[in-house]
Amino acid sequence: MNRQLLALLIVVSYFVLTIWFIRRRRLALASSTPEITNENSATLQTADTLVAFASQTGNAQQLASLTAEILAAAGLRLQVKALDQVSSSELANYRRALFIVSTTGEGDSPDNATDFVLKTMSGDANLQSLEYGLLALGDRRYTYFCGFGHTLDHWLQQSHALPLFDMVEVDNGDAGALRHWQSQLSLLADTIEAADWSAPAYQSWRLIERHLLNPGSVGGPVYHLKLEALEVHEGWQAGDIVEVGPRNSERSVAALLNALGLKHDAPANESGTPWGEWLAERFLPHSAAEIEALKQLPTSELSSSLKLLSHREYSIASLPAEGLELVVRQVRNTNGELGHGSGWLTEYASIGDKIALRVRPSPMFHPPAEPIPLILIGNGTGIAGLRAHLKASIAAGQRRHWLIFGERNAAYDAYFSDELQALQEEGVLTRLDIAYSRDQAIPIYVQDLIQQAADELRVWLDDGAAIFICGSAKGMAPEVHRVLLDIVGDHILANLTNTGRYRRDIY
C-alpha cells in the first residue's frame, strides 16, 4: 500500500511540475489583475485593450481567443467581445483594439456584427485616441474578398482611429497570413515566447554573402545579406516577405546540454535527431528554476516540453533576378542576448551555412497594377522593402520616384548611398530626402521632411502617385500617418488605402 501511495505521489508531482513549466509565463503574472475579462466583469474599467470578433462559423472567434492568449500571457489587460456588443462610445475608452472579422456572402458582415453595422458604423465617431489592428478573413473566390474587413477598416480610419499596421487579409485560412498576424501580435506584446500557431514549411537556402552596412554607428549593426536557393522555390515580387527559421547559438545549446547532462550527438526523439540539433531550434529556458524543472523530467518527455522557435519575418530587398537579399539589424533582448532571428542571420550562421527560409506573398504591399509615380517612405531596415519597390518600378518603365528616408548619422548610416546616387544621376530617382536625426542639435525626422514638402506631396498625389511605407511601427509609421492625415485629410487617405495607393509594411 505504501509503495502504491508513493508511486501516486510521484506521478502527481511530475504532472504538477510539467504544468508549471509549460505555463511558467502566466504563473509569473499570477499576482496581477486577470488579463481577460468579460463585459460583466468588475475589472472592465482596467482593460485597455479590446479584442473584438465578428464570426459566422466560429473561426474568427477562435482566432480572437488565440490572439487574447498571446496578449494576456504578456501581461496586457484586455476584453474579448463579439462586435455587436461594442459601441463607438465604448471603443473610444480603449487605448487599443484588435478586430478579427470574417465576411459572408458578397462582402456582408456576419450575424453577430449586424447591430454594430446598423447602430455604430452608420454614424460618425471620434476614435482619435484609439490604435487598432485588423485581421480580415475571406475567400478570394468571392467578388468582394474580405469585403466586411475593408468596410470596417475604412470606417475606422474615417473615425480618426490610428492603424497599428495594415489590415492582414487571410484567404481561406492561409497559414502564412495568420503567422504574419501572430508576428504583429508578438511585436505588440513585446514577447518572443509565442510559438507559431502552425510552423512554416521551410525550404533550404544558403547564406553566400554578409557585410556590415553601418560600421561605427551608434545604432545596432545593420547587415546586408545575400542567399541562394538550394531547391526549387516559388518566386517573389517587390513587397513580399521571408519567414526565417531561427536557431540558437552553439554556446547557448552547449550550456544547456551541460546543465542537463546530455550529449550533443545523443538522440532526442524516435527519429534520431541529435540533442544538439533539436535544442538549436527550440525556445531554451531562461532561469535556473526552469532548467531545474527540466532536469526533473524523464529524458523521453524532455524534448516534447520545449517549443519550436517561432519564425522571424524580413522584407525582401531585391528582385528575383538578383537573388534573395535582406537587410537585418541586430536586436538584443532585455537580457542582452541577440534576438533569435537577427542573431542567427548576422552572427551565429557562417557563410555557406544552410538557412531555413520560406518566401511568403504579401499582397497588401505589392506594387500597383500599373506603373505610377511612387513616394517611398521609411527608416532603418525599412530601406529593404523600399529598395525592392524602387527596382521593380524602374524595371516596369516608371521614372518618377521620390524617396524619403530616415536614419541617425550621414557618416555611418547612409545605406546604399552609391546606388541611390547613381539612380539620381540616371534620372529615375526624381527626389531624395534623408533625415539624419542626430546630425544637428534639434533632431529632424521623416515626418518633419514630409510636413515641409506638403505642397509637393499633394501635387504628386494629384498626379496619381502611390505612397509605400516600410519601417518602424513604433515611431516612424504612426507619426508619418498623422502628418499625412494633416496634409490630405481622413477621406483622401482612406480612399488611397482602399484603392491600393497607400500601403505599408511596418514592424
TrEMBL record:
Domain of life where this protein originates: Bacteria
Entry GO CC: cytosol
Any coiled-coil regions, as ranges: none
Transmembrane segments: 6-22
Pfam families in UniProt: Flavodoxin_1 (PF00258), NAD_binding_1 (PF00175)
EC number: 1.6.2.4
Keywords, ordered alphabetically: Electron transport, Flavoprotein, FMN, Membrane, Transmembrane, Transmembrane helix, Transport
Domain Flavodoxin-like: 49-186
Protein name: NADPH--hemoprotein reductase
Annotated organism of origin: Methyloradius palustris
